[in-house]
Design a protein that fits this description.
Radius of gyration: 43 Å
Shape: globular
Number of helices: 8
Strand content: 5-15%
Mean pLDDT: 76
Low-confidence stretches: 7-25, 29-40, 43-52, 58-66
Distance between the termini: 111 Å
């Protein structure tokens, strides 16, 4: 007869052993109830059919969302910033004073840390004295100075098309026709890597190129 009331006690202790047996005796170790109980959460270390899907089964989906696909490099290439256009500075000067203004601009550039080989000076009127002196030795010697690239290079508008690009281009509007000016300024802009400086009459520049410069 004493075994009859103890049957429900075994089922009630299926979640774990009782701290103190009611009768003072050591309670027998209960046997686990087969299968999960409907109202009880799953026991640690004993996965049941109702346990959520393990994280390892979600790994392919999670990794696929983070790992860049084949189109990722193409998207990065499209969003790459385009090269910055050179800055344009205008120094007001008359045709008679444009060459002096250009010389002052070159001096300021060199004083600020620009290397001489980074500067190209273009004149629309008379040749710069340096260019005239070098050309007196022949065009081969003149362009050899250009190819060396270790000093400021001076070129007239008619020869500027052969000059290579440099970081800074200074244009002295010291004469020449409007057609020469209209052809020289776009050429100089294309040769300038970082900065284009134009020394001349602003009204003349605007009459030739509008407000573009």
């Amino acid at each position: 007869m004493p075994l009859i009331p103890e049957e429900p006690q075994i089922h009630e202790s299926a979640q774990g052993p009782r701290a103190t047996p009611a009768s003072g005796r050591t309670a027998p170790t209960p046997r686990p109830v087969p299968g999960p109980r409907p109202a009880a959460p799953p026991r640690p270390g004993r996965p049941g059919p109702l346990r959520p899907t393990p994280p390892a089964q979600r790994t392919p989906r999670d990794v696929g969302a983070v790992k860049p696909g084949p189109s990722a490099p193409a998207a990065a290439a499209v969003s790459a910033p385009a090269p910055a256009a050179p800055q344009i500075q205008l120094i007001p000067a008359s045709p008679e004073g444009a060459l002096d203004a250009a010389e002052e601009a070159v001096d300021l550039l060199l004083d600020s840390g620009r290397a001489p080989g980074e500067v190209l000076v273009i004149t629309t009127g008379e040749q710069h004295p340096w260019a005239a002196h070098e050309l007196s030795f022949g065009e081969a010697a003149y362009w050899a100075q250009h190819d060396a690239g270790d000093d400021v290079f001076y070129a007239g508008a008619s020869m500027a098309g052969r000059a290579a690009s440099r970081q800074v281009v200074v244009v002295a509007l010291n004469g020449g026709t409007d057609e020469v000016t209209a052809a020289t300024l776009p050429l100089a802009l294309g040769r300038a890597g970082a900065l284009l400086i134009v020394c001349g009459d602003p009204q003349r520049i605007n009459s030739v190129l509008g407000a573009g410069v």
